[in-house]
Amino acid sequence: VLAAADRDPEPLPGVRASDALAPRDLPPLPAPQPVPAHPEQPPAYPAAPGGPDPFALDQLATDAAARAHTLLGTGQDPVGELTLWQDAVRLAAARPGSGLTAGTRALYSALAAATGRGTAELARAVAAWRQGGPVGLAVLEDAWDPPAGRFDRARPLLLAADLPAFRPWRNRLTHPRGHVQLRLGRDGLWYAYESEPGRDDWWPRGIPDTDPVGALTGLDLPTDL
Fold first, then answer.
1. How confident is the model at residue 219, as a pLDDT?
2. Contact of 111 with 92, CB cutoff 8 Å
3. I want to staple 128 with a disulfide (CB 3.0 to 4.6 A). Which of 65, 109, 140, 162 is the partner?
4. Res 225: pLDDT
5. Which residues are 191's β-sheet partners?
């Protein structure tokens, strides 16, 4: 036994460095696999006490698969340039269904905490994203000074539709009752907003339109002013 222990160990199999680095012809790489027709669905995630929401995990995995599929097919990530806040709003807006269910509240709470925002602020931003995507979110958050032209023509169009004189401020036109507002986006579309009169608590409403009157379709607009 002692004699066996004193013997040098058997050398390990290997390749000499000079042999590994020697020039040699390699076969060509195989052709890339075709891009799948569509991204696959993620596996089901079991719920565990104290664990993450399985529906939120499913949404994140589905979103990641869709982005990877687009990147593989086009070489571009359609949301790669979004800020952390914009991406959080996008994810929350993609949550299927409507209303703040328990799962949706958990997702909103997690996204709001990750971005340093409140859940109410996130909910308003989600409404803007669903109204107009990244441009809709910018319309919610940023006032700007539009050039003369479309903005200046909007007030006569509203008056011609038997609506009262809206008050202008930057890219916004506000109903004299203070409950309806139009905002001109940088995409040239008009976005409608509603608030309780006098509260300045504006929420996106309706569908953006090139016509300011069309953007107000379905909103409460008495014409007795």
1. 85
2. yes
3. 140
4. 46
5. 183
- Cα–Cα distance measured from residue 115 to residue 113, given in angstroms and rounded to the nearest whole number: 5
Residue among 137, 124, 181, 178 nearest 158 (CA): 181
What pLDDT score was predicted for residue 222? 63
State the pairing for strand pair 180-184/172-174: antiparallel
pLDDT < 70 regions, the chain:
1-6, 96-100, 222-225
pLDDT of res. 213: 96
Q: Provide the token pair at 107.
A: 């997702």
Alpha-carbon distance of 92 to 86, in angstroms, equals 10
Q: What is the pLDDT of residue 143?
A: 97
pTM, 2 dp: 0.78
Query: With 0-12 CB in 10 A as exposed, 13-18 as middle and 19+ as buried, what is 63?
Result: middle
Instruction: Say whether 60 sits in a helix, a strand or coil.
Output: helix
Calpha distance 125→119 (Å, rounded)? 10
Tokens standing for residue 210: 């090139």
The DSSP output letter for 174 is: E
- Determine the 3-state secondary structure of 76 from DSSP: coil
Here the tokens at position 17 are 């460095």
**Number of neighbours of residue 209 by Cβ within 10 angstroms:** 16
